[in-house]
Amino acid sequence: MNIDTKYHGTVAVKDEDIIRFPHGLPGFADEKRFVLLPLADTPFVILQSVKTPALGFVLIEPFSYFPAYEFELDEAMVEQLDIESERDVAVYVILTVADPFDNTTANLQAPVVINARKRIGKQVILSNTPYKTKHRLFPEKAAT
């Protein structure tokens, strides 16, 4: 099927590429089907709504930028995502892209967790964590 996207124009997607978010995303409860589209020549991917062309989130895998980033999923979340092995799990965080790009931040408090094998996803809101919704992607440059 072809879908219209925010950053890629019209693209063909296969049914098996669609990731189901049974409860939608926070603030977007009716958006239940997304695809991951790589942003060419960057480490970024777009979590693109299948239904709404204007709804596309810029994501990164956080571990390259935040090597100490870690969290545990509770048993209910593991069950919701039907996770059988750590190998099934892909983790992304949503970026708030800024101008200039050096001021871009990552939401480490609410990672997007995907069971890549079963194509089920959820944005998980972490509690009792030091992570915030705005962590700088790049270190702040010292004033000269």
Question: How would you describe the overall organization of this protein?
Answer:
The chain is mainly β and 144 residues long. The protein has one domain (2-135): BH3618-like (Roll). It is built from 1 helix and 11 strands; from the N terminus they run E-E-E-E-E-E-H-E-E-E-E-E. The strands form 2 sheets. Strands 3, 4, 5, 6, 7, 8, 9, 10 and 11 form a 9-stranded antiparallel sheet that branches. Strand 4 and strand 5 (45-49) form a beta hairpin. The longest helix is centred in the middle third of the chain and has 6 residues, at 75-80. The protein is globular and about 45 Å long. The protein starts with a strand and ends in an 8-residue tail after the last strand. The relative contact order is 0.18.
Order of helices and strands: EEEEEEHEEEEE
Question: Which sheet architecture does the biggest sheet show?
Answer: 9 strands, antiparallel
Helix content: under 10%
Number of helices: 1
Q: What gap, in angstroms, lies between the N and C termini? A: 52 Å
Average pLDDT level:
94
Helix-and-strand structural type: mainly beta
Q: What is Rg?
A: 16 Å
Number of strands: 11
Overall domain count: 1
Strand content: 25-35%
Q: What is the architecture at the second tier of CATH? A: Roll
CATH-assigned fold name: BH3618-like
Kindly provide the name of the CATH class.
Mainly Beta
Shape: globular
Task: Describe the structure using short key phrases.
144 residues; two-stranded antiparallel ribbon; nine-stranded antiparallel sheet; mainly beta; BH3618-like
